[in-house]
Amino acid sequence: MQQATLRLAGSGSAYAAATANTDARMQLWCNDHCDLLEVSGGGVARVLAAVDARVGIRDRVTEGDTTVAVTEACLRAATADGVEDTLAAHGCLLVPPLTYEAGCKHLRVLALSPAALTDVYHALRADYEITVADKREVSAPASAAPGTQAADLTARQAAVLRAAVDAGYYERPRETTTAALADRFDIARSTLEEHLRRAEGKLARAAVRD
Predict the structure, then answer these.
(1) Is 53 left (phi over 0), alpha (psi -120 to 50) or beta?
(2) Collapsed DSSP state (helix, strand, coil) of residue 206
(3) How far apart are CA 81 and CA 102, in angstroms?
(4) Are residues 125 and 67 in the same domain?
(5) DSSP states along 13-35
(6) I need a surface site. Which of 59, 111, 177, 201 has the fewest CB within 10 A?
(7) Other beta carbons less than 10 A from residue 97's beta carbon
(8) 161 and 127, same structural domain?
(9) In terms of residue numbers, what domain contains 53?
(10) Is 178:189 a contact under the CB 8 Å cutoff?
(11) Which residues are bridge partners to 24 per DSSP?
(12) What is the pLDDT confidence band of residue 208, given thresholds at 50, 70 and 90?
């Protein structure tokens, strides 16, 4: 089997739009009649307000910077974006949860053959700006992209950390600077350093737990 993690920009998803211009990450488990959401990071209140306005929130529990919420209705029933239908048409499966971050929809797709995965990619590319974040052969569905599950890195944190490693930031002597890395992402140096600090902290805590 083949599993790929795809990032869809311009999906038109209300949940994806709710995370735009925030540092929040929302994970979704669909239960047909409602959605179970886990929202964490910066801008949680703003994201949940957008969700509440669209489908309603029945209940929520907050601990630290993470809120778990149950919606009044299923968003897909109200406004399907066609992604799940495209997967089904090509014999591929969606591996929950869906993830929404930085205005994009992230989904893990399971295919029984490389050809089916390729067909889904081209079908989605006709309607969305699509990026393959991870692709590998598996014997069973993996619960997260390699190296991110235990540390629970956001997509931006993982990208910044990967860029820092690839550019030699952790070599001695260092082969790049945070200013140079910030230029690559077109963000302020202080913002990049914050992403890097949070990623390092999560990795350290995960290592201690393990």
Answers:
(1) alpha
(2) helix
(3) 18
(4) yes
(5) -HHHHHHTTSEEEEEEEE-SS-E
(6) 59
(7) 20
(8) no
(9) 2-136
(10) yes
(11) 41
(12) low
